[in-house]
Amino acid sequence: MTLLSVNAGRAKNVGYTDSPAGRTGIDKRPVDGPVRIQSPGPTGVGASGVAGDDVCDLRFHGGADRAVYAFAREDLDRWERELGHELANGSFGENLTTSGVDVNGALIGERWRIGEDVVVEVTGGRIPCRTFQGHLEERGIDSRGWVKRFTRTEAGPGALLRVIEPGEVRAGDPVTVVHRPDHAVTVAFLHRAATTERHRLAETLVAAEWMESGLLDLARAYAEKYAG
What we know:
Layout: E1 2-8, E2 12-13, E3 23-24, E4 29-30, E5 35-37, E6 68-72, H1 73-83, E7 96-99, E8 111-114, E9 118-125, H2 130-138, H3 146-152, E10 159-165, E11 167-169, E12 175-179, H4 187-194, H5 213-227
Parallel strand pairs: 6-7
Antiparallel strand pairs: 1-4, 1-7, 2-3, 5-11, 6-10, 8-9, 8-12, 9-10
């Protein structure tokens, strides 16, 4: 299991985002050399956990629970075939492009060591938004109905990560699973429960202590509603 690239993006003004500032850092490109990874601070206040990477909409991105976003090269390859368009590492706004890592089958709370120093923890999966769709359209990709299409794909959403041990990473670093919690809630299952199978959200609460705050609030709200 390998880290293929570390990707960062600088904020720019665009017309397709619903970010309050009208800016986005979704256009991420591979970065040469070692890159510092650390916790950026509380969700809703901190930005990206990747040095040199901008996060503009702190309502849904960045912060301790969503410090880093990982996506599998295997899934980018699948989308290349489906979209008929080349997708470089970072094309989906991911910070880490991996090879051989079961990103979507990872358990919520699973920990990965990347290189010698960094340990991250899986907290959830990406919920697609209009900014994501607009980013693809800007690059000449036909992304009509993209939010629904990405939500319903079997490929999976990619993993949001919390930084447990900070340090530096670089392309080529090995990725090793160092801990798996005792439950069965995967990134893919949580994503389905939060989008197309909301009747299953209560089942995800066995992973509550590791889940990113936005998805946790959603799961608790639905559990309370159905319990009542």
